[in-house]
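Progress note, project year one: complex with biotin.
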Amino acid sequence: MIRPLIGHQIIHLESVDSTNNYAAKVFKSDEVGPGAVILADIQKNGRGQRDKTWQSDAFENLTFSFTAAINLWKINSLMDLNRIVALSLYELFKEIGLEPKIKWPNDIMINDKKISGILIENFFRGEKAKTIVGIGINVNQQQFSIPRATSISIEKKEFFKTRELLDLYLSILNKLIPHYSTLRAEDLQRLYDQQLWLRNEEIRFTTRNNEKKHGRIIGTTLDGKLLVNLDGKTISVRNGEVKY
Ligand code: BTN
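Model obtained:
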């Protein structure tokens, strides 16, 4: 069997603070190379984007990270990696018969509810950039403390084996990376924009200073900002500048 790019080594922990922290530690110290997967049944201090927490009931869901080396995998930029990971999760949910959408910058939504989140972290060691990709997927959890969240089991009305789902995801990712890494940034941007949640719909945005504005999402810029039309004007916004 050919050694897969991602998942040739899987470290399965029963409990950890955060798989991203654990992956960063073993990647920094060269205990693992690129493409190692760290999977945990219990994540006690899961981290989300912009210093939020990621809560996941023990043994119910998938919480894992993988170590990445974008140069080695011929991925042009972290932005491209972001889009590739979001698109790979999009493909996973499609594969199991759901209708996913990508909520900018990188949440996966099903029926207007969040089912998966991505936390990509990058650090340098000498000349080499090392990257950790952390993914949380709600699999069998039935209730959530936050509004607008769902799981595969809620949507499909059946329970899933988390490990089988991880294997399916890794097989999709291992097929997509060699293909997507040959695409130009503009092509990835187009593929990503096509799957944007609420694109072209009239929606209400809340700005940082709590103003409510009507507008619509047009797409993303090449460097990953969200392009929105607000009060007839097209502007680009950074992560955290608007809520919707
Ligand atoms: C987000 O939606 O804000 C991103 C959530 C990312 C959660 C995953 S779970 C596995 C990995 N370890 C973490 O601490 N966070 C990521």
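The radius of gyration is 18 Å.
The chain has a mean pLDDT of 95.
No further modelling is planned for this target in the current period.
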